Structures are given as C-alpha cells and as structure tokens.
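User: I've been going back and forth on whether these two constructs are worth ordering. Before I decide, could you fold them both?

Assistant: Sure. I'll take them in the order you sent them. The first construct and its structure tokens:
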Amino acid sequence: MSPDPWRGPVVDWLHGQAVTASRSPHTVAAYRRDLEDLVRWLRERHPDLPGWGAVKAEHLRAWLGQGRARGLAQSTLQRRLSALRRFLDHLVESGVLPANPARGLSAPRKPRRLPATLEVDQVTALLDAAPTDDPLALRDRAMLELFYSAAVRLAELAGADLADLDLEGGWIRVLGKGGRERLAPLGAPARAALRDWLQVRPQLVGAGETALFVGRRGTRLSHRAIQQRLAQAARRHGLDRRLHPHLLRHACATHLLESSGDLRAVQELLGHANLSTTQIYTHLDFQHLAQVYDRAHPRARRKGKPKPG
C-alpha cells in the first residue's frame, strides 16, 4: 500500500517536533489538529491536488479564511499559521517544495468593530438631566460635560490637575498616550459645569490636593470611581446601554465629524498621533450620510426594479 501523500509527511514532522524540537505534548497535539484539519479541507475542496508539492498560497489563504468565518479566535488563527509555516519550512528543507507558500501570509483578522456611539439627542438629554443638588452631583455633571465636550480619555480626565484648566481661554491641558500633551477645547456648557464644580470643590478637597476631580475623601478620583459614577448616571437616566468614558469620547468625535467633515480637526481633538487611527470615524460618518440620503434624496428609494426597455 502506497504511503498517504498528505498524512505521511505530517506524521513524520510531528514526530520530529516531539522528539528533536522538544515541543510540549500540548503544542504537538494542537499542531496535529491544525494540520489534520487542513488535510481534510484540501481533500474536500481540491481533490485534484496530488500532495503537498502542489499546494499554493491561495489554497492556504482560503483555508485560513474559512477558519475565521467559522468564528475561530485570533489566537487560534495565529497558531494555525505558525504550525503551517513550520511544517512547510520542513517540506522545503526536504525538497518537497521549492519555497514556502505560507511565508507571505498573515492570519486573517476579524473586521474592526466600529466604536459604539450615542445620538446627539441622547447625549443632550443625559447631560441636561444631570442633577446639581450637591457637590458630588455637580462634580459628576462637570465630568460628563468634559468627556463629551473635549473628547478626553479616562486617564486624561483622572490625571487632570486644577492648574491644567483655563476656563477663560476655554481649554484644558491633558496628557495623552505616549506622553503627548495637547490642549482640548471646552464648549460653553462644559465651562459652566466646571465653574459650578469649582465653586464647591473646596468643600471636599484635602490639603495640598492638586487633582481637578476629587472624591468624598478629598483625594484624586480613581479610574474605577469615575467609571462607576458614569454607570450610575446611565442607570438614573434609563440609558439602554452601559455608559463609559469612551462612549462619550466617540460620540463627541462622531458628532463633530458629522457636522464639520474635518477629519484633521477630529484627529487633533482626539490626540491621535496618526490620521489612520482617526479614519475609522469616516465609516461612522458615511453611515450617517447614507441614512440621511435614504431619508431625503428623491431617488434614494425605488418602489421596484426598473422594467427592461
């Protein structure tokens, strides 16, 4: 009986991985599952292929892609590609393949999820309904306004000091990722909310505390405490989703881009080092454009397919 042209080389290589390369049993077992899955797939999809010597990059790319379509984790896809590259390197060394067709491949990534956002009226209702009946409520309202007005990150707001704020100039200095400092603009409602908070801040602040936002004990608010206060605000308002700092940051960026169309300005506001990071918001902006087009353009909605002439 002639040896299996697919499974024979796999078995030989796995034995070498376990003995010569001293791979762990867990790793060898994972490699075996990956390569056996590939063998089954090649036999089903490409029964005309005589063996490994005829495998091309497009075959391997399609196999990796169907793994992603099945919902395999990114770590699993990376491991599959690693096993594949090692095995095919072995076949190149053995003279079965002239070159490794997996060397130019990368594990397929899941489509990047668009950041969640809020509609303008949702944010407006949330901010306008924020209570102002005690110092902590005034502080929370000021934080909400700052997140939405200046699109600051959680760490940027938590790390802000009193000296970073310039209400007359209408900006706040924040320290972003990579130690990059920027001035974030403040809208009129945010400046008003911050003024109200600064009036009552002395009732809470401890001696020598420089933090802009403090808690009951007069010390700087932690990230966790800020997240909890935003979650409470969402529950109080009956918001149908979890409210977190990035949701308000994304809402600010999205609404600004929808109104202005100025991607560079949004990049500056968000403190992104590269414009490519900001460009995900163009997808959100296009979604908004498409919705407006469908509602407003007289030729957007066709009642039926045009009849052939």
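The second construct, handled the same way:
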Amino acid sequence: MLDLNSLADFSPNSQSAAGHSTDLEQRLGLYQVFLKLYEHHRELLDEIIELENTDNRNRLRGVWQYVQAVINGDQVYLTTNLLQDQTQIVTQSENLWVIGRDRKASLPIPDKRLSRRHAIVQYVADKGFFLMDLDSTNGTFVNNEPVRRPVLLKDGDRIRLGSLSFIFFLCESSRCAEPIPLSVLSSVKLVSPILETRQLEESPAMGAIELSLKAKQSDWDAPLQGGEKETSMFLKPTTRQQNEAPEPKHPQLSPSQQADILDRFLNR
C-alpha cells in the first residue's frame, strides 16, 4: 500500500514556505511525487494512467457511459449503454441488478478490474435505488467516495466500479405532450394520414358534406330515374364526334433547330 508519509518530503508544500511556493516549485514537487510512485508503486501509476486514457477515449468518441433508472407506474427498469456500447432496457423480476464480470449477471461487463459480482443496484419501493458493494476487489465509489454500506443514488451521481465509470440518472415522472397543431402537421408531408384523420375529427360537418357529395355523384351514362330532370344533361361533358377532324399537331423541332432558334433570340 502507498505510504503517504513517505511522499510528504516530495509534496509541493515542503519545497517552500506555505503560500510562497512558485509554480516551478509546485511542478518539481509533483514530478518528484510521480518519480516516487514510479519507483515503488509502478502498478498503481499504470492503473491511474490507464483510467485517464479510458475516460479520454470515451470523450473523444462522444460516448458517455450511463445507467438510467426508470419508474413508470408499476414498471421499474434500467436503461444503459454499458452492454456492448448499445442502449438496452434491462428488467429484473426482484428489482435487483447485479453488475460484474459474470455472464449471468444482470449487467455483464467483461472488465478485468471488475469482480465476478462486483456491485448490486436495488430498488426499494417508495425509497429509491440503492447501490451496494459485494465485497469487490477494487471497490465501488459514488462521487469519489467509497461505498461501505447501501448508498441511496441521486440523479447525476458519478459511479466507479474498479476502472468502469458511468453516470447514474433517475427518472421518476412522466408527462404527455400536447397534440400537434394542424398548422404544423400540414407542413409535414410524412404524416399526411394523421393530418387527414385530425381534419375529419376536428371538422365533422365538412367531413359529412364531403361524404354526401361523393354519395350523390351520378354516373353520366346511367339512365335517368323517374324524379330526375334533364337539366343534368347540360353538364354532361362533350365527347368528340367520330367524324370530327383531329386537332392539328405542332411540328416537332430537332435539337439543332431548337439550338439555332435560341442562338438567334440571344443575339437579338
């Protein structure tokens, strides 16, 4: 274990009087501390560097690891992207989620610094979600504080299990958004069936009129019934007589002729 007393001689405060150490002296003091770590506790320094590089890789990829606990009525579940970098919903009948290297764990994560059963998240009705350490080798931390007994998790807590770090989110409430106005729906072409349904629901009178007009449309070639008048025949579309001469067609111009006409027009 690292002896803090052995590092006291290399701390920045010991280089000069308190409050008068220069920036250069502080840098030299930190450098000597890392030299001491490298000489006597190299494996600890390697772990610190690897943890820092892991966090940097996640930041560069734009991926922040998280676990979100959701309470939706009688349903309780976790949503996380810790499993193969894919967002998944994980339900558990007893509301107990084990995190560890074990493939049968609720959240199985192949990390060599995780114990087989490293920690557990438990939901207690009317109280919330608790995190407990299962006597892991590398420990469990919440906001850099070691977990020695069940800790009630809060929205935004930072959790570290060995070298695995993630943010905990808590969702306890839900809301139903207001309906989209027709003025907005009319500008979205992909939801035209929704728009038509909404228009008929909000304008039942217009819908009834349209249906009645469709029902009253008569077939022009159907024989007239007893009560109908001949006035409808005036609206019958005219058909071309068989002996009527066809309309003259305009001569088609070749591409070269069209280009010649355009050139003349532009020259003018």
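Notes on the second construct follow. Residues 241 and 247 are 13 Å apart (CA to CA). The helical segments are 23-40, 42-61, 182-185, 192-202, 204-216, 255-267.
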